[in-house]
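If you are new to this repository, start here. Below is one unmodified record pulled from the training split, so you can see the exact layout before writing a loader.
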Amino acid sequence: MNLKRQRIFWAVLFGIMILAAFIIPFLPPLTVLPKVYGAFLFWNIFALVVIVCLGIITARWRDDHER
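And here is the target side for that same chain:
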């Protein structure tokens, strides 16, 4: 996969994750719970997904002159 496609892929993926961060906590499965267990679980999973994605991006990071 070339660099342009990778950038588009990661931009779309992070856009979806940002939308999910705003939309999912307000969906009925999480809002009908009497306590915050659902939201707490969602934010933990969301944080792990973002950390893994950022780890993948930074692990493959290199300057143009290193190729």
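Two things worth knowing about this chain: The mean pLDDT is 81. The chain is about 70% helix and 0% strand.
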